[in-house]
Amino acid sequence: MARPNLQVALDHSDLPSAIKDVKNVGDIVDIIEVGTILLLQAGDQAVKCIRAMYPDKKIVADTKCADAGGTLAENVQKAGADWTTVICCATIPTMKAAAEKIEEVQVELYGD
What we know:
CATH class: Alpha Beta
Largest sheet: 5 strands, parallel
Strand content: 15-25%
Helix content: 40-55%
């Protein structure tokens, strides 16, 4: 059985706070998630910064993409993300378009 991955979510509203917190755990986690609010507040600079700090970690950009999957995935991939997320109500073509531009797509499952 493979060892499970440990992921931390940087669900911060500003980049300095996220950097402060990720310094405490970044070396021991497997995956670092740049949270949705952090992406909205700091843009791709948040992904670029975390990638510069942790070049060997998996980086997830939690975009919760609902539309324009290919464009959004390509943008965060260029910034340094390995994976992105799409919201569960996104269309299959949106999910497939995102998957063509980035290593992996996670589908956010929640609600009823």
